[in-house]
Amino acid sequence: MEQREKILDATIRVFNRKGLKFTMDDIAGELSMSKKTIYTVFRDKETLFFQMVDYCFDNIKESEQAILNDTSLKTEDKIRKILGVLPEGYKDIDFRNLYQLKDKYPKIYHKVEERLETGWENTIALIHQGVEEGAIRPVNIIVIKTMLEATIEQFFQRDVLITNGISYGDALQEVVDIIVDGIAIRK
Description:
mainly alpha; 2 domains; 69% helix
């Protein structure tokens, strides 16, 4: 694994323990590496965090591709999994602390928003496929996309999950279930 990825993976682990309050010393300690070495790869903490956003979203896209390629899944199951995709290594990360991003790191927060709002092509195509197959009812995809984006952005903008003792993964799964199943009890 290249040094950049090792540092990014360590940053994710340290972030999970300390939230946004992690320091470069924390990452150096996690890696048993000098801060000087880290600074040869990342200019500063903000640059590291900025690149971590792309790294995390790129890993999410890899997991999404694996779901798309899984021939054992029905279209509806693929939609459910893609809408709530989190790579295996991210299952235990406490994303609830990201609500602090907007005020402390607005540039990074904007990057998160940008990544949330792009890369929907596979999901949109899968929803169209589900409609064509009759697996799901015809829906306005823009509404679904906006609902999911807005909900995730609210999770990142406010401390609503922490206040209510809900993990990010559980909250995301609940949102996906509501989008895919609705809230009505089917008999």
